[in-house]
Each structure stands twice: as structure tokens, then as C-alpha cells.
Design brief:
The protein is an alpha+beta fold. The protein contains 17 helices and 9 strands. A hairpin with a 2-residue loop joins strand 4 (44-51) and strand 5. The longest helix has 29 residues, at 143-171.
């Protein structure tokens, strides 16, 4: 028996429908189980319990064994003086408050069905699954329950990402343009170069970017120079021109790339080379002055696609790296890449901005994310293999949050899907 299961049973009233009787023979009627407390102190606050015909309001403490009360030294803690009911699996000791008064006890093992215990055991039996605990049953979950839970965890994901964004806002002294620039750089670097590009954003004030936006060559040169992509001396005219611009601008604005990590090329497809991504980012800012305002004002995917419709400078049409010519091909931001930017930069930014402004944007978020094509990775593929329907990016983002924050951490009892399986 695990205490978390007892919390679950109490919280959701998973008790057999028959009169509850305390260990002292008093009738118990649960008016309200209270608010689940995940911090120190009693497990449930502000419960309302009818004990022997008298309504009590107070806290509820839950243990596997009643004697755990003493093992945890609650009898010395004033925080437990307001406990009105001790809920246990096994009542092996009478429990007293700090002042010596006895606390009513409910022994749960007399009121929990064998089928619920069996389902719980099945859910956590590692020998029965290879991916997630409920893989054999998840396809049978009511679609309404599943959809609502996925939507909720999607917003939990945005909430979690907003913590990082609000930290960036504090570091930038409230400059949302700097925050956007940092987010875009980080996500233009994808997984391999995210840290390198993030260090670049930390070394380059957005005020400099704003001053250089009208001159595409200067902006691209500063990004390349700060990113250590101009360090080598090559017999390439474009590189030499960029290097000249960067040296002039670094002196003018007193820029230093000493703390910037050099990005990687290894294991990347040429279209994701840092040279291409930084040139595309420079083109994005050259094309869009007041980029932050445009992004937070956009209410549909079509508008966002228009904003991000840009390509690397002309030189990169025939290059992926300096001094090495390749077949001519415009290096535009693809729809797939823009979708990733919308998911990882735009929506978390919009969510954080409106949260900081005290405004709800749930409808806008759902409209945009529902229009973005679903992603595909191992986790998504595994859910689909178990007959879970995933149609758009809202559902892929929700499923990723479900897997990372609930499934992989065995938080089934906190999940609406796991909850519905334990009837």
C-alpha cells in the first residue's frame, strides 16, 4: 500500500457506497475532502466532515498506518492541532493531538473495492508494459476525457516554459524585444546549437540589433562575428566583407564575443548549419521592424507564416559554408521550421506576455496551435502505435507534456487518464 493511493482514494472519494464508520463507531459523512496540500503540514486543508451528526471543518491527515502519526512526530507539531479526521489504511494505534485529545480515525481498507486495488496494481506492474503504464488501456479512454486532459497539460507546458521567459524578462529589465530575440536565437539553433546561440543572445544587446536592422549586411556580420563564424581567414570575398564590417561595428559598439560558445556543424543537415540559420534570422529582423509587436498581435497561423516568410542572403543561395560553392538553392525558412518556431518561441512568448499583462489568451493559443501541423518523434509515434489519435500540434505538445511530466514520472494518480482507469 502506498500513501499516494490513499490520497487519491480520499481526494476523489473512491470509496464503496456504504455508510462510513469511524474506529470509535461514529458515523462519517464526507461533505468535502478539502484541498490537497503538496507542501508541509496536513495532507488536506479545509475539509468538511460530518462526525456523528455534527459538522466539523478542518484538516485531514492520511497515513498507511495510524502509528505513522507518531513516527512522523505530528503529536509535537502545532500545525496538526486542527486535524479533524485521521484517514489510514490500517488502524494500529489511537492518535492524540498535542493537547492530548483523541482524533477520529477512518480505516480505509474496509471501504475500498478489490477491483480498484487490482487495477492500481496492474497500472504499476512494470512487467505488463514497455512504453507507458496505461498503454493497453489508453485507447479505450473516453475521447472527451482525453481531449480535455491533453488541452490542460498543453497549457501546463506553456506555463512551465513561461518560467524561463519571465526569467529572461527580468534579466533584460523588462525588454520584451530582447526576450524575443533571445528565444528566437535559442530555437534557431535547434537542439545542437541552442546553447551556443543562447550565449550569443546574452552577449549582444538588442539595442544594437535595432540600430543595424536597416542594413542587412551589417546585421548579418555582427551575428556571424559574435558567433565566432568569422574567426578563420579564408580567401572568400563575402567573408572578408563581413569580417571588415564586424571589426568596425565591434569597435564602434564595444562588442565582445569572449563568452560566446562557437556553434557546431557536426551531425547537422546543411540546411541547419549555423551559417544558414543566422543569416535567416538576420533576414527576419531586416524584413520586420517591430517584430515583437507583430508577433503578439497575430491571431492566426497565416499571419505568422507571413511574418516568418524570409530567406538567407543571396550569397547563401550557393553556399552552406564560406568558400565552398554548392548547387543554387534559396535558403528560405520552411513551413516545418516555422511551425517549430511557432511552437517553441511564439506561443510561449505570447502566453507569457499576456500573463504578465494580466490577460487571458486561451482562445488565441488554441486557435493557432490547432492550425499547426502535428510533430513527429519517437514519443508521438509510440502513442500512435497504441492507437492514440493525434491530429495537430496542440495534441502533440499535450502528449509530450503528458509523457514527460506524468507517464515517465509515474504520476498516474494525478492524471485524468489514470484517474478514469481506477473506477
Amino acid at each position: 500500500m502506498q500513501e499516494e493511493l490513499l490520497h487519491f482514494i480520499w481526494k476523489y472519494k473512491k470509496l464503496q457506497l456504504k455508510p462510513l464508520i469511524s474506529s470509535d463507531g461514529d458515523s462519517i459523512l464526507i461533505e468535502s475532502p478539502g484541498v490537497h496540500n503538496h507542501l508541509s503540514g496536513p495532507d488536506f486543508f479545509n475539509a468538511k466532515i460530518d462526525l456523528a451528526g455534527q459538522l466539523w471543518a478542518g484538516n485531514v491527515e492520511i497515513h498507511v498506518k495510524a502509528s505513522d502519526w507518531y513516527a512522523h512526530k505530528h503529536q509535537y507539531d502545532a500545525a496538526y492541532d486542527n486535524v479533524i479526521l485521521h484517514v489510514v489504511w490500517e488502524n494500529d494505534a489511537a492518535v492524540l493531538r498535542k493537547d492530548g485529545t483523541k482524533i477520529s480515525t477512518l480505516e480505509l481498507k474496509n471501504y475500498v473495492s478489490v477491483s480498484l486495488l487490482h487495477e492500481y496494481q496492474q497500472l504499476f506492474d512494470n512487467s505488463l508494459f514497455s512504453f507507458i503504464n496505461c498503454e493497453k488501456s489508453i485507447a479505450e479512454i473516453d475521447q472527451f476525457v482525453f481531449d480535455n486532459w491533453i488541452e490542460r497539460v498543453f497549457f501546463e507546458r506553456l506555463e512551465r516554459k513561461s518560467n524561463f521567459i519571465l526569467e529572461l524578462l527580468e534579466q533584460s529589465h523588462g525588454d520584451w524585444e530582447q526576450v524575443l530575440f533571445t528565444l528566437l536565437l535559442k530555437n534557431f539553433g535547434l537542439k545542437i546549437n541552442s546553447e551556443a546561440f543562447l550565449s550569443l543572445a546574452g552577449a549582444l544587446p538588442f539595442a544594437i540589433v535595432r540600430k543595424l536592422q536597416s542594413n542587412a549586411l551589417q546585421l548579418e556580420s555582427v551575428l556571424f562575428g559574435m558567433g565566432h563564424l568569422l574567426d578563420d581567414d579564408l580567401s572568400d570575398e563575402y567573408q572578408q566583407a563581413m569580417k571588415k564590417e564586424y571589426n568596425y561595428l565591434a569597435h564602434k559598439f564595444q562588442l565582445s564575443n569572449a563568452g560566446v560558445f562557437k556553434p557546431h556543424f557536426f551531425k547537422l543537415r546543411p540546411s541547419n548549419f549555423p551559417t544558414i540559420r543566422l543569416s535567416q534570422l538576420a533576414a527576419l529582423y531586416h524584413k520586420n521592424h517591430s517584430l515583437f509587436e507583430k508577433i503578439v498581435s497575430a491571431t492566426d497561423v497565416k499571419s505568422l507564416y507571413a511574418i516568418f516568410n524570409c530567406e538567407a542572403s543571396t550569397y547563401w543561395s550557393t553556399h552552406y559554408t564560406f568558400a565552398k560553392t554548392s548547387k543554387s538553392r534559396p535558403k528560405k525558412l520552411t513551413k516545418k521550421f516555422i511551425d517549430l518556431i511557432i511552437i517553441n518561441s511564439v506561443l510561449p512568448l505570447k502566453f507569457s506576455y499576456h500573463k504578465q499583462q494580466g490577460r487571458a489568451v486561451d482562445d488565441d493559443m488554441l486557435k493557432i496551435i490547432s492550425e499547426v501541423t502535428s510533430e513527429n518523434n519517437t514519443i508521438i509515434s509510440n502513442f500512435r502505435k497504441h492507437k492514440v489519435r493525434i491530429d495537430n500540434a496542440k495534441e502533440t505538445q499535450g502528449v509530450l507534456e503528458l509523457y514527460n511530466e506524468y507517464c515517465s514520472k509515474n504520476r498516474c494518480l494525478e492524471c485524468a487518464i489514470g484517474n478514469s482507469l481506477l473506477q
